[in-house]
Amino acid sequence: MSKMAAWSASWAPHLLSVLRIITAFCFMQHGSMKLLGFPKPMDVSLFSLMGLAGTLELVGGFLILIGLFTRPVAFILSGEMAFAYFMAHAPQGFWPVLNHGEPAVLYCFIFLYLAAAGGGIWAVDRLLGQRQ
User: Which of 12, 14, 74, 76 is the most buried (most CB within 10 A)?
Assistant: First the structure.
């Protein structure tokens, strides 16, 4: 095994956790704006489609951030982002760069990856699994 392959193998679980944490931190900001008006206020009714999206983004994002129920939550959030893309962005044109859907596409596939890969080495899921 080459040095690069050995380095990659040893750091992959850590970098998976870093990807999960940074993605969740950025994702939570969307829910925070919708529900808490931070860092930018939005006028969103809690009992609306945007309110539901904000709840999924804030609560689901927090669960992903700490790595609790990572796989099922990531799967749900991946679906939310696919739904958001096809509902809000795709009707504006085919290319994500032009319809402003790139973040939704990226979140969708990062969450789909996390649903398959799990939360990595720094996740509450891992701690709970070790205690059983």
Answer: 74
6, part of any domain: no
What is the model's pTM? Answer: 0.93
Tens place of pLDDT per residue across the chain (132 aa)? 799 988 888 999 999 999 999 999 999 999 999 999 999 999 999 999 999 999 999 999 999 999 999 999 999 999 999 999 999 999 999 999 999 999 999 999 999 999 999 999 999 999 998 754
Cβ atoms 78, 108 nearer than 8 A: yes
For residue 3, being part of any structural domain is answered with no
Give the residue numbers spanning the domain of 68. Answer: 14-131
Rounded Cα gap, residues 12 and 15, in angstroms: 5
Provide the residue count of the chain: 132
Residue 71: its H or E element: helix 70-84
Residues 6+ apart with CB under 8 A from 14: 120, 121, 122
Is position 1 within any domain? Answer: no
**Total domains, the chain:** 1
Amino acid at 40: K
Q: What does the block give as tokens for 83?
A: 């739904």
